[in-house]
Amino acid sequence: MSLPPGSAVAICVLAVAVVFAAWCLVDLARAGQVRHLPKWAWAVVICVSVPWGGLAYLIFGKARPAARMPRQAPAAGEAGVAAGGPLPAGRVPVSPLVIEVDELTKRFGPVTAVDALSFTVRPGHVTGFLGPNGAGKTTTMRVILGLDAPTSGRALVGGRRYQEIIRPLHVAGSLLDATAVHGGRTAWFHLLSIAQSNGIGRRRVMQVLEAAGLAAVAGRRVGEFSLGMKQRLGIAAALLADPAVLIFDEPVNGLDAAGVRWIRQLLKSMAAEGRTVMVSSHLMSEIALTADHLIIIGRGRLLADTPTDRFVSGTHQDVLVRSPRAGELAGLLTARGAAVRPEGDGGLAVTGLDAPAIGDLAAGHGIAVHELVPRHASLEQAYLDLTGASTAYRAGTSALEGTASS
Amino acid sequence: MTAPQIAAAGRAVPSRLVRARDVLAFEWTKLRSVRSNYWTLLIAAVVTLGVTAIVAQSIASAPARPPGGPMNPLSSSFLGYGEYTVLPVTVLSVLTFTSEYASGLIRTTFTAVPRRGAVLAAKAAVTGAAALTAGELLAFACFFLTQAILSAHHRGLALSHPGALRAVLAVGLVLTACAVVGVGAGAVTRHTAGAIAAAVTVIYLLAVLCLVLPYPWNVRLGRFTLPFAAYQLVTLHPQPGLLSPGLSMLVLISWPAAALLAAILVITRRDA
After folding, report:
1. How confident is residue A73, by pLDDT bands cut at 50, 70 and 90?
2. Which of these, A184, A195, B36, B65, is most buried using a 10 Å CB contact count?
3. Chain-chain contact of A166 with B29 (C-beta, under 8 angstroms)
4. How confident is the model at residue B62 (pLDDT cuts 50, 70, 90)?
5. How far is B246 from chain A (nearest CA, A)?
6. Is the confidence at residue B11, as pLDDT, over 90?
7. What residues contact residue B50 under an 8 Å CB cut-off, 6+ apart?
8. Which of A23-32, A35-44, A349-358 has the lowest mean pLDDT?
9. Is residue A16 domain-resident?
């Protein structure tokens, strides 16, 4: 049951009528044509109260059942996602959705925060969105969520611009800044207001509070919350409508060990259910255990878009060699085209030749080898190597040294 | 705002009215769930009634024919209201936007409801309705308090006196207009201090500025400011040099309309 179309117009007409009636009454009274109270007092009461009453009835009375109906009796294709079950229910959402960022550029005056960035975040994976501070991660996420308008290019969620989605929380849940809450409001009212904005019921608010471990403090004001509790509250808000897409900006900031584990398990289970999960971080160590796909940006440009396990093997690796005749061996290796870098403790870091080739070469010339270790860079090291050139804000080492010595 | 809207996958598109109700409920819950709002209103009401009582007492004890003409027993009922109710309520209205901008909550709001015009309309409607309710209640309280004190000296008015009920009702509308001006100012400036300055300028200072202009420009321009328009609606004997009460009503709704227009132009074009 829905109200007839054009009721919005009717409301506007009513509002105009109130103003017009008031105007007429005021002018009539001024002209002295109305001497006795009852005549126009009745008119005032009717003109002011009836439209307001009608408006209130239209907004709060009649529309409620219409909004509840689909949740009480979910249609076949709907699966009652809005109402939600217990949170990690292992259900596959209605339809998996991708996030597409296409040639996205965002400039703030002379500063280019995001520079022709293109990538796709696919369902079923936790996608880590990595970059140093100032790389443009948050700006990209804001454009995806329709908060910032792109200078050029576009960002789509499920094939549509976020701003065009009706009740968008049912499509994408997001957490950009956990501290962005009104400290004077309780957790319950904070979530309830967000739920109401997208037609989500009170039961679901209680469910996400329980899932986030905040049910006991639902009645407390958010201003008293620790950063970790605010993170949980923000994640609860993102999960309110059980969306197919989740976008989190630095969600583990400020969480304790248990909270970090909760988030990791939550993200993995959400991805396992077929959702699209995009998590930003500036630290590889936070994301390495959780994300199975990495999108790395620096200075607003795409640096890498790769599965996590292939990221390491595709980057920096070398072989550590120790030998009593290291100098001689180094000469031989260089002659074969390998790059040799002496390490502080007498070892050689060799790149360009693999361990068997180095061993064979040493054996061929009768050089003893005491240690021969192929080394993979850690995820962290690979990430630092990749983003090293694009770090926007870096401590000036030489300047610091100068200060220390003076 | 003309972009096509598409519902979440697999769901029926909720009607415009349902969505309007959602946004109104969103803003109403936010307004009613902050305890300081109630305290501010309560203190404003207590101070207003106190000042009203003092004003009434001083009128009641004045000589029968004071120099400068008799005090108007109707409009003087609202001397306290004009400052100690209007100012706090304006500040509360400003805060509906600026507190969200200050904390960053505005991004949550715009993520939940990407149609920013709807957010603005809902904030204005909810704040305006709350101001109308509080304003009318206080207006009647001020009127009856003043008349009770005056009637002890046989100078009081009855509500049935011609023009009295109209004036009392108009006082509530004045508060609504000021509240909506506050909402618009908050949306435009984003910062509490700037928004309060802007709202106070529109509500009080423009009239003061016009007063210092040379005659006849002080009246010509001054009659379009909110205080003069409000006076014409509240007094028993409208000043002939100023606008008629009907046109003053139009002025009263034009200022909030202008504030909302400026707000909608700005917030739909600006990054949140």
Report:
1. very low
2. A195
3. no
4. confident
5. 5
6. no
7. B80
8. A35-44
9. yes
Contact A376, A317 (CB under 8 A): yes
Closest-CA residue of chain B to A143: B271
Residues A118 and A38 in one domain: no
Helix (H) or strand (E) holding A130, with range, is strand A126-130
Confidence of residue B21 (pLDDT cuts 50, 70, 90): very high
A296: left (phi over 0), alpha (psi -120 to 50) or beta: beta
Specify if B65 maps to a domain: no
Least confident of A115-119, A226-230, A286-290: A286-290
Q: Tokens 């409301």, residue?
A: A11
Within a domain: B40: yes
A212 and A218 Cβ atoms separated by less than 8 Å: no
Structural domain of residue A206, as residue ranges?
A: 99-312
Is A142 part of any domain?
yes
Chain A hits for B114, CB-CB cut-off 8 Å, are 146, 162-165, 168
For residue A160, give the DSSP letter.
B
- Same-domain check for residues A254 and A188: yes
The C-alpha atoms of residue A225 and residue A190 are separated, in whole angstroms, by: 13
* Whether pLDDT at B20 is above 70: yes
Encode burial over A112-151: b for 16+ CB neighbours within 10 A, e otherwise: bbbbebebebbbbbbbbbbbbebbbbbbbbbbbbbbbebe
- Tell me if B1 is assigned to some domain: no
- State the pLDDT confidence band at A76, using cuts at 50, 70 and 90: very low
Task: Judge: A167–B7 Cβ closer than 8 Å, yes or no.
Answer: yes
What does DSSP assign to residue A245?
A: E
Whole-number Cα distances in Å, B237 to B67, B71, B231, B233, B248: 18, 12, 10, 9, 14
Query: What DSSP state is assigned to residue B202?
Result: I
Pair (A112, A256) in one structural domain: yes
For the segment A332-342, the average pLDDT, to the nearest whole number, is 87
pLDDT at A336 over 90: no
Nearest to A164 among B4, B9, B29 (CB): B4
Provide φ and ψ at A170, rounded to 5°.
-75, -15
Identity of residue A67: A
As beta bridge partners, residue A106 has A114
What string of DSSP letters covers A302-327?
Answer: EEEEEEHHHHHHTS-EEEEEE-TTHH
**Which positions in chain A touch B11 (Cβ < 8 Å)?**
70, 78, 82, 167, 170
Task: Specify the higher pLDDT residue, A257 or A7.
Answer: A257
Per the domain annotation, does B66 fall within a domain? Answer: no
How far is C-alpha B186 from the chain's CA centre?
14
Q: What would the mean pLDDT of A184-202 be, rounded to a whole number?
A: 95
Look up tokens 């509906």; give the residue.
Answer: B96
Q: Of B91, B117, B97, B106, which is closest to residue B204 (Cα–Cα)?
A: B91
**Does one domain contain both A303 and A260?**
yes
Smallest Cα–Cα separation from A281: which of A247, A330, A232?
A247
Single-letter amino acid code for the residue at A227? L
Residue of A31 and A367 predicted with greater confidence: A367
Segment A155-181, tens digit of pLDDT: 999 999 999 999 999 999 999 999 999
| DSSP secondary structure string for all residues of A374-386 | EEEPPHHHHHHHH
Is the same domain home to A239 and A328? no
- A44 pLDDT more than 70: no
Tens digits of residue pLDDT in A82-102 = 333 344 444 444 467 899 999
pLDDT in tens, B100-112: 999 999 999 999 9
